[in-house]
């Protein structure tokens, strides 16, 4: 049998893109290992997705980035690279263990001086940021508990400015967005939150939005992208 006829997997395509388009990143590989060894869920963005976030921050000329959902700091590091040495990232994380691992990873990557990790419920942190009245954010990356997506998007609008970019991750979930299930269980609540977020992106007059499906090492998913009017 001709091996060239064997099906190619999305993970293999991702590996090809990593080899061709990304520089070797031993410190990023080590960051991923530290997070996994600490018991953090293996749900961080992929390598190509991380590079996408970095480039998106650069395309948007973002100097202030808000991330909702730090996990082990993998995406945070890419965003911190994107804003440059004179930029700043505020990242929200509920779990203290995740925040500690993220702090170690950011330090190992040499970007800890441009990142502020806020520990606690993201809704409370966002309220605190609003009360502080600081400079608006140029890019907001939402990748936390999906039940609160609509709340996070509303806060992103308020904390941003006309032209701010909002990215909402995991909006397809193997097609589950079309089959939300029962709202009484955790999976149903999560998918309802995803759909509520999509509804807000499509109906809020201050947003211009689209969504793209993705396939790769993380399976079939996607992200929504919006600009604040």
Write a structural description:
The chain contains 8 helices and 7 strands. The chain has 229 residues and is α/β, with parallel strands linked by helices. Strands 3-2-1-4-5-7-6 form a 7-stranded mixed sheet, with helices on both faces. It is globular. The relative contact order is 0.13.
As laid out across the biggest beta sheet, the strand order is 3-2-1-4-5-7-6
Task: Quote the average pLDDT.
Answer: 95
pLDDT < 50 runs, ≥5 residues: none
Q: Kindly, what is the distance between the CA atoms of the first and last residues, rounded to a whole number of angstroms?
A: 56 Å
Q: Which H/E pattern describes the elements?
A: HHHEHEHEHEHEHEE
Shape: globular
Strand content: 15-25%
Helix segment tally: 8
SS class: alpha/beta
Which descriptors would you attach to this protein?
7 strands; 44% helix; 229 residues
Helix and strand arrangement:
Blueprint: H1 10-21, H2 26-37, H3 47-59, E1 64-68, H4 74-83, E2 88-93, H5 96-109, E3 115-119, H6 122-132, E4 139-142, H7 149-159, E5 165-169, H8 186-203, E6 207-216, E7 219-228
Parallel strand pairs: 1-2, 1-4, 2-3, 4-5
Antiparallel strand pairs: 5-7, 6-7
Helix pairs in contact: 2-5, 3-4, 6-7, 7-8
């Amino acid at each position: 049998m001709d091996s060239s006829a064997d099906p190619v997997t999305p993970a293999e395509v991702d590996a090809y893109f990593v080899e061709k388009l990304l520089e070797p990143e031993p410190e990023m590989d080590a960051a991923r290992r530290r997070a996994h060894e600490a018991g953090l869920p293996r749900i961080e963005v992929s390598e190509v997705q991380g590079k996408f976030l970095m480039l998106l921050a650069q395309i948007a000329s973002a100097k202030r980035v808000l991330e909702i959902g730090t996990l082990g700091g993998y995406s945070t590091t890419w965003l911190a690279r994107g804003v440059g040495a004179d930029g700043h990232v505020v990242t929200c994380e509920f779990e203290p263990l995740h925040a500690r691992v993220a702090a170690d990873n950011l330090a190992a990557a040499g970007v800890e001086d441009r990142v502020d990790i806020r520990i606690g419920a993201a809704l409370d942190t966002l309220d605190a940021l609003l009360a502080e009245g600081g400079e608006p954010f140029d890019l907001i990356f939402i990748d936390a508990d999906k039940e609160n997506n609509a709340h996070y998007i509303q806060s992103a609008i308020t904390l941003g400015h006309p032209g701010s970019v909002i990215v909402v991750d995991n909006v397809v979930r193997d097609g589950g967005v079309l089959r939300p299930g029962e709202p009484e269980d955790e999976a149903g609540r999560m998918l309802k939150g995803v759909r509520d977020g999509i509804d807000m992106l499509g109906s809020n007059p201050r947003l211009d939005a689209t969504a793209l499906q993705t396939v790769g090492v993380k399976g079939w998913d996607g992200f929504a992208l919006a600009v604040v009017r």
